[in-house]
Specification:
The complex is a heterodimer of chains A (about 140) and B (about 300). Helix content of chain A is about 10%, strand content about 40%. Chain A is built from one helix and eight strands, in the order E-E-H-E-E-E-E-E-E. With about 300 residues, chain B is mainly beta. Classes of the chains: A mainly beta (about 140), B mainly beta (about 300). At the A-B interface, helix 1, strand 7 and strand 8 of A face helix 1, helix 2 and helix 4 of B.
């Protein structure tokens, strides 16, 4: 199971599209995080020092994805690009039901090779919605 | 589990301020190493063209050019900004000093920063410092120098000292040849590869108030273990009218196994304005995709070209 602090666990379906950075060591595939609170260990939310230490140690490798309740199932694509705009990896390419999700990146490209550490861009498109967030590999 | 022991370990790391080496060359150091001031429409294609257009990559090819250059490049797609500065002057032999820095902005979401303001102290930047001494500007010249590179990512840093040498020669029929090579000599946290080399040829044609400088070159970059295998092949043309205005174009292809498969073609365009000893150059494009095409500007004061 992912290492999920409380603020990554949601119990309600979101009201708007959103792509966000997540401070967690999770690097696995997309999964729904709403309604999973009961199966997640109860932990205190991270303090500022813990958050800085966590990001410094492992970077930002995970994203939160919100699909609003007002929408029917929505095709969602999240692609990772390097700083020069070269496509590195397709992280998500599937139709999602309304809800909140978490997806991690294991730091490999589409061929499964490790990429260099540093800053990458994750671009999410879902219908008309488009959002860009950073992923940072240590 | 995200339990107490895990949190305690993270806090301990932060408290002790332990500087762990990076795993290798970062994305932003790789970006910095691909940069050249706007006066060079593209590094590989202009490596033998001569003057300030070549000096950044191959100091020996800079010839008798002296002066001071400052430049900036911005990649809006990734919010990456690079600053560059160089000086060439005679103090006995010719000397060239360079400094460059690339930094990546907006690393964290605003909502994350609101929640954890301490994240603002974590950055991503790369810095280069260089000094080269050039002997014999003329028919044949060589340079020897060193370069210091520092790579910082989220509070951890790596650095290296590199030795650099270059040579330039004038060939029959108006051709010029230039070579440049560098290799890491001492590293702290940057696993070194075998080195980096560039080679190019160029030819100048002048007719009345019109001049044309053509160049072509290759770069083979194996300097770092996480940068190994980068290759660039490019050619460039710079046309100058009445020594006043110049137009440049470069076309090339790049392969970077640590970024994506295969070769990626690119274009770059440049515009230069020369007034007396001052030159202003603008450039758009270069290695990378069109969506991340950077825009660059450089300002040069060159009492001797």
């Amino acid at each position: 199971m992912a290492l999920l602090p409380d603020d990554l666990v949601v119990t309600s379906v979101p009201s708007a599209f959103r792509l966000g950075q997540a401070i967690t060591s999770y690097t696995g595939p997309l999964f729904r995080r709403d309604g999973v609170a009961a199966s997640t260990p109860a932990t205190a939310g991270m303090s500022g020092a813990e958050a800085v230490a966590s990001v410094r140690a492992q970077g930002i490798r995970a994203l939160t994805v919100d699909i609003p309740a007002a929408n029917a199932s929505t095709p969602v694509r999240i692609r990772i690009y390097d700083l020069a705009g070269r496509p590195v990896r397709i992280l998500v390419d599937e139709t999602l039901d309304p809800g909140s999700y978490l997806v991690g990146w294991d730091g490999t490209d589409q061929s499964g090779r490790s990429v260099r550490p540093g800053v990458y861009l994750a671009i999410m498109t879902a219908g008309e919605f488009r959002s860009v967030r950073r992923l940072i590999l240590k | 589990m995200y339990g107490g022991s895990f949190s305690s370990r993270l806090i301990l790391v932060a408290a002790l301020g332990l500087v762990r080496p990076l795993a290798g060359q970062s994305t932003h150091l790789a970006e910095l190493e691909r940069k050249a001031p706007a006066i060079s429409v593209e590094s590989a294609g202009a490596v033998a063209v001569g003057g300030w257009a070549s000096a950044w990559l191959a100091p020996a090819a800079g010839g008798r050019a002296t002066g001071v250059l400052i430049g900036v490049e911005h990649n809006g797609f990734a919010a990456v900004t690079s600053m560059m500065a160089a000086a060439r002057f005679r103090l006995g032999p010719m000397w060239q000093l360079t400094v460059a820095q690339t930094s990546v902005k907006d690393l964290f979401d605003a909502t994350l920063l609101d929640q954890y303001p301490g994240l603002a102290q974590l950055g991503a930047s790369a810095t280069q410092l260089g000094a080269d001494v050039i002997f014999g500007p003329g028919m044949f010249s060589v340079s020897l120098g060193w370069r210091y590179e520092r790579d910082e990512l989220l509070g951890d840093a790596a650095s290296a000292w590199l030795a650099r040498g270059s040579a330039a020669a004038r060939l029959p029929l108006g051709f010029r040849l230039s070579l440049s090579a560098e290799r890491a000599m001492s590293t702290a946290g940057m696993p070194a590869g075998t080195g980096r080399a560039a080679m190019g040829v160029a030819r100048h044609i002048r007719a009345n108030r019109f001049s044309l400088a053509w160049g072509a070159g290759v770069i083979a970059d194996d300097a770092w273990s996480r940068g190994r295998g980068r290759r660039v092949i490019a050619t460039s043309v710079r046309s100058t009218l009445a020594d006043l205005v110049s137009f440049s174009v470069a076309v090339g292809t790049e392969r970077d196994p640590f970024a994506s498969d295969g070769w990626l073609g690119f274009l770059a365009f440049g515009l230069g304005l020369n007034v007396g000893t001052w030159s202003a150059d603008f450039r758009h494009g270069g290695p990378g995709t069109t969506q991340a095409a950077p825009t660059a500007m450089s300002l040069l004061w060159a009492p001797e070209q």
